[in-house]
Amino acid sequence: MMTRFQWKWMLAFVFLFILFLLIQGYLTYSLNKSFLFASLVGLSIVFCIAFLLLKSFMQPLNDLMNILKRLTINHLNVDVPIDSSKDEFRRLAKTMSEMDAQLRNKIEEVSKEKDYLQTILKGMAEGVLVVDENSRIIMINDALQKLFSLSTEIVDKTPLEFIRHVDLERAIQEAIREGKNASFELIHPSSPNRIFEVNVVGISPSSPERHKEANGRRGAIAVFHDISRLKELEKVRQDFVANVSHELRTPLTTMKGYAETLLDGAWKEEVAFQFVQIINRHTDRLSKIVEDLLTLSKIESKEFQLKIERISILELIDDVFDFVEEFAHKKKINLSKEKIAPSLTLDADRKNLEQVLINLLDNAIKYGREGGEVTVSVIEKPKEIQFSIRDNGIGIPKEELTRIFERFYRVDKGRSQELGGTGLGLSIVKHLITAHGGQIWAESQPGEGSTFCFTLPKVNPVRKSSTF
């Protein structure tokens, strides 16, 4: 059964055939004017009908061509008109509508996946670098831009152009050519203290055709993980173990030596008494180290709690002075405090705050000049109280001030051991001040003495207990 479209073509053919016959008749049998006039009229009618049929045939084609052009320039969601009088065009238009809908769905899926991937990459703390099979950068995330101060202009360039590192270049090339995974450490080119663990993985082409076009080569992803803090903590741990070992070994070695001497027969009363005194002194030092280590461990644990209460600052300082007065008297050091109002109070853990002040005063007396003075002052501020402990001792070099609160760190190791210090007192002080929500720092000029200052909030929102 013939369709309307096929019928129109048939009619067009018939009219064209008649047109041909008329022209032939005109040329061959132009016998008189009446036949010529009839021929011209018939020819005009045929031309008009042929023109209308051709226009009717070309209009749907023009519409479809316009739609296809709009589709090629990403104008999706195009309304495809369907003329029910033209079966062939109707089927073609329907197919194009279905294709348009499928294409929109696919693009929407890809767009969602792209947004999802971009969100993940943007939220990552690690830097991400993606290169193609020619080792050209095709994408970097925000974290990598910040870590290496990069701009998006590096896209389509090679990693070697902004990070000159042999291991990175080698790992990327091996991942591209052979699909090998690699992991190594990279030091920031402009900041030696920044260390990254870099993992490089090869990316297989998305299709066999793409794999063939790339001659078996792959892309690669490099992930930069900042391990500077981990390295720093590892160094602190190693230093701590080394320091603890040294601090424990020194008194133990001394004690063992004198004990062996006594065992070998050094039983004269004066010699034996002197040896026992030395052993006892080193035993006390060893006990102090262990006690401070346990205290520090307790403060750093999650179970550590402060028992917050309202305390009088004047009474607290008087009690601490009573505790250290004998030690200060031996060194002929005068303890003084600037005028403190009896009504001045703050919320704090009294026992731990006493230990903070005792440790700081003990240090001030140890390193102060004989016959000198140690002064405690208190300044009231709107929301906090500032304590200052000032001495006129040997002072601390400026470059050492940032490290004096580290565990086992000593400015003068020989003098500290001679004075019986463990190297943990200031570290304990800093942890206790931090637990109270305060801050501590030191100011000093070599030869002119030192001032240790710390602040504590006047009011603690949790009066009964506070977990550090």
Q: Count up the helices.
A: 12
The separation of the N and C termini measures: 91 Å
Say how many strands there are: 14
What is the succession of H and E elements?
HHHEEHHEEHEHHEEHEEHEEHHEEE
Would you give an account of this structure?
It is a single chain. With 468 residues, the protein is of the alpha+beta class. Among the domains are: 120-204 and 217-229, Beta-Lactamase; 232-300, Orthogonal Bundle (Helix Hairpins); 309-464, Heat Shock Protein 90 (2-Layer Sandwich), CATH 3.30.565. 53% of the residues lie in helices and 19% in strands. The protein is built from 12 helices and 14 strands. The chain has helices at residues 4-28, 33-72, 87-123, 142-148, 166-178, 208-213, 228-263, 269-300, 313-330, 350-367, 413-418, 425-435; strands spanning 127-131, 137-140, 182-188, 191-203, 219-226, 305-306, 308-312, 334-337, 345-349, 373-380, 384-391, 439-445, 449-457, 466-467. The strands form 4 sheets. The protein has a 5-stranded antiparallel beta sheet, with helices on both faces. Strands 8-10-11-13-12 form a 5-stranded mixed beta sheet, covered by helices on one side. A two-stranded antiparallel sheet has the order 6-14. Strand 1 and strand 2 form a beta hairpin. Helix 7 packs antiparallel against helix 8 (269-300), helix 9 (313-330) runs parallel beside helix 10 (350-367) and helix 10 (350-367) runs antiparallel to helix 12. The longest helix has 40 residues, at 33-72. The chain is elongated, with a radius of gyration of 46 Å. Mean pLDDT is 77; it is low at 464-468.
